[in-house]
Write a structure and sequence with these properties.
Order of helices and strands: HHHHHHEHEHEEEHEEHEEEHHHHHHHHHH
Protein name: Chemotaxis protein CheR
Strand content: 5-15%
Radius of gyration: 23 Å
InterPro entries: Bact_Chemotaxis_MeTrfase (IPR050903), CheR_C (IPR022642), CheR_MeTrfase (IPR000780), SAM-dependent_MTases_sf (IPR029063), TPR-like_helical_dom_sf (IPR011990), TPR_rpt (IPR019734)
Low-confidence stretches: 274-346, 349-358
CATH architecture of the largest domain: 3-Layer(aba) Sandwich
Organism: Geomesophilobacter sediminis
Distance between the termini: 36 Å
GO molecular function: S-adenosylmethionine-dependent methyltransferase activity
Keywords: Methyltransferase, S-adenosyl-L-methionine, Transferase
Amino acid sequence: MLIRFGRFVARHLGLFYREERLDELRQKCLPLCREFGYPDVETCLLWLMSEPLSGDQLDALARTLTIGETYFLRDPASYRVLEQELLPGLIASRRAGDRRLRIWSAGCSSGEEPYSIAILLKRLIPDLAQWDVTILGTDINPAALKKGKRGVYSQWSFRDAPPWLSDYFKQRPDGRMEILPEIRSMVRFKQLNLADEVYPSAANGTGGMDLVFCRNVMLYFGPELVPQVVDRLHAALRVGGWLFVSPTEIDHRHFTRFSCRRFPGAIFFEKGDGVPVQDPVPVPELPLTLLKEMSTGQAPAWAATGFDFAPAPSGAPPAAAQLMAETPVPSATDPGPASTVAAATAEEDARSGDAAECTTDAAGWEARARQLADQGLFDAAKQCCEKAIAQDRLHAASHYLLALIHIEQGAQDEAESILKRALYIDHDFILGYFALGNLYRQMGRDAESQRQFGVALSLLERCDPAAVLPDSDGMTAGGLAEVIRRQRRG
């Protein structure tokens, strides 16, 4: 029974339990018996495996079996590399262009990691309000995501934290710390199962990333799933984008499509042509504005006693001020302009239509647009959508994808008009109703959102739950129905 259930968990959640850990799996499932009203574990597990999992059952499994152990600025060496090596060059290259950054914390648990990244960007970019920054935090555990959205944390989340971190929180009467609204608004949380083949996709905003953090996640996955996840994360990155995983998760056989960049205490993988692993390159001694030595493993005194220390200096920190004045010289481990040139070349090919790869019919242009959108080349993707529509004005999928790109770029009114056009063309276009419902929800138009979700659900009831929906990047009718039900519950 337990061996069979272990395979069941691996299939649905990606979590891998070796035979010697099956007793641990059984113990973890005891709360499920109480939650679902079964007298013993075996009966409960048999019930779970007897029919397709509902959304509530999957959420309960995720809550029970996933590990939510994280804290702010965990692994200081990686944040030092971000501050001193990766972000300065990335920020400088974007400052002269579209001032756009896209970062994904995959397996974010309760949000400490994406908020740490947001705080770091706040410190490095003085004119952050003039930038288009997306920080996406995803996890399979709905309870963890709910905590992340609240942004309220106990002292334990601040162990090893430097004193300046308190500048980005306010202390509540109960002693817990609440993240400031300006930081909370920088992070968007979504439920996503890394074991599912639903990313990268413009539909869920997981394409075209500059940085992907996926730390302490894949070490819980089975050997068959890990290379699949790595390949999908590779596809989610822009040319020149970076993937960061925990050193304990690295099997270089799975990362051959990346260039490996070694830094003291951290390894990052760059999306490029897949050069051989390099020898460690020393990082020059630079003033460390972000971190101090953090090794006590204790919650900081300020978390218990309040803000009894000098505030952080106002204005731009030295690193950010210098960044605005000059473009830093790339280090030996930083590919510098090469990544920017590669991305620019890809976009130029897209703008020209890349006729060798595109067919002249609407479906061909729409497929090319989807590929470009997944790479974050949104302007080029829009051009391909427009060419698809010029070929066939009744091609609803091209209108739908064009609307998703407008949503990604913050053009909500334009997206609404395009989605309505798609639904006028195809009254049974389920994804159109779903996207419009999500858009209205973002705009605060809750009644209209519920109405669109209701239409989508009524159409889904006519479908085989196992059927893959067209233009959905692999989502089944049953899976989308569960997503909509969760959305409607709020």
